[in-house]
């Protein structure tokens, strides 16, 4: 997207797994990234969650080749992830070392998120190299951040970044 469709630097916005992909995109294309807005960012979450399962559960998943991750966000009640997908995801973990992102970063996360713990946003904030990082925790926010006030906050956050970035030029 950044190489083929985007003209100039962009503000990347990603939610959940999209937040993880947003970070990876910013690392891969720093010249195309002006700022980031992560919503319920799930950096490394799938890999970490799988590794915290009891060994017998992990072995069973490996034998079957699939892990069913329970989620209220899925219409089926769970996401089915292949072991190949998890192995590939492990190659893209970002939370073990400093994250080489220096642009402004805004992280919004709900404290009532039952899919991705809010402390992951805190870990991202601690590891990005940018000096311009804000974390916004919504006391009643859930994973999808779909309430009217949540959406207003996202729009306000993006608008505020646009204002900030255009006044710096």
From TrEMBL:
InterPro entries: AB_hydrolase_fold, ABHD10_acyl-thioesterase. Keywords: Hydrolase. It comes from Alosa alosa. This is Mycophenolic acid acyl-glucuronide esterase, mitochondrial. GO terms for molecular function: hydrolase activity, hydrolyzing O-glycosyl compounds; palmitoyl-(protein) hydrolase activity. PANTHER family: MYCOPHENOLIC ACID ACYL-GLUCURONIDE ESTERASE, MITOCHONDRIAL, PALMITOYL-PROTEIN THIOESTERASE ABHD10, MITOCHONDRIAL. One of its GO terms (cellular component) is mitochondrion. Belongs to the AB hydrolase superfamily.
């Amino acid at each position: 997207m950044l190489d083929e469709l985007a003209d100039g630097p962009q503000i990347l916005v990603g939610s959940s797994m999209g937040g993880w992909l947003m970070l990876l995109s910013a690392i891969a294309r720093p010249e195309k990234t002006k700022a980031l807005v992560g919503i319920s960012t799930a950096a490394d979450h799938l890999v970490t969650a799988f590794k915290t399962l009891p060994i017998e559960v992990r072995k069973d998943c490996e034998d079957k080749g699939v892990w069913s991750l329970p989620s209220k966000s899925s219409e089926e009640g769970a996401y089915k992830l292949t072991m190949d997908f998890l192995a590939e995801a492990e190659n893209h973990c970002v939370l073990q070392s400093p994250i080489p992102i220096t642009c402004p970063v805004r992280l919004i996360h709900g404290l009532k998120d039952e899919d991705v713990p809010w402390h992951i946003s805190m870990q991202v904030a601690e590891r990005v190299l940018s000096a311009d990082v804000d974390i916004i925790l919504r006391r009643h926010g859930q994973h999808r951040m779909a309430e009217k006030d949540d959406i207003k906050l996202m729009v306000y956050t993006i608008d505020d970044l646009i204002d900030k970035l255009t006044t710096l030029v």
